[in-house]
Specification:
The chain is about 15% helix and about 35% strand. The chain is of the alpha+beta class. Strands 3, 4, 5, 7 and 8 form a five-stranded mixed sheet that branches. The chain has a three-stranded antiparallel sheet with strand order 1-2-6, with no helix packed on it. The protein is elongated, with a radius of gyration of 19 Å. Keywords: Signal. This is DUF4399 domain-containing protein.
Length: about 140
């Protein structure tokens, strides 16, 4: 009987530790991410341009830096916002893990959407998530 209680207690302790490790990093309620440039509705001739990313009431730090109220930018291109789990790293989810606040990108002709999402030291959105409004641009 005591062995069953011990196994149950160990299982519960492991679940508690796993929950704590998976918990999202908190963000202040007044934090705000935004795209400085390009503006919504912009026409980008040639498709090469600088994206400038802004953040209020939080700081930007490189990936792996585990401090309160900091994170790093992720640029979502032509994709929907998902605020749970690790942020993917692919052609639609650009990571700026060195703490960059601007980047030169190139997009093919067409209509595109851009949105920023702040990630914590593990590339996971904060709680509550900090993200920008979606911006639509046209590359003729």
């Amino acid at each position: 009987m005591s062995r069953e209680i011990t196994l149950a207690a160990l299982t519960m302790a492991a679940l508690t530790i796993a929950s704590a490790a998976a918990a999202a990093t908190p963000s202040p309620p007044n934090a705000e991410a935004y795209i400085v440039w390009p503006p919504d509705g912009a026409t980008i001739v040639g498709g090469k341009f600088w994206v400038r990313m802004g953040l209020r009431n939080m700081g930007v730090a490189p990936k792996g830096v585990d401090m309160p109220n900091v994170g790093h930018h992720h640029l979502l291109i032509d994709t929907e916002l998902v605020t749970e789990g690790e942020i993917p790293s692919d052609r639609n989810h650009l990571h700026f893990g060195a703490g960059e606040t601007e980047a030169r990108i190139e997009l093919p002709p067409g209509k595109h959407t851009l949105q920023m999402l702040l990630g914590d030291h593990r590339h996971v959105p904060h709680d509550p998530p900090v993200y920008s409004k979606k911006v639509t641009i046209i590359v003729p």
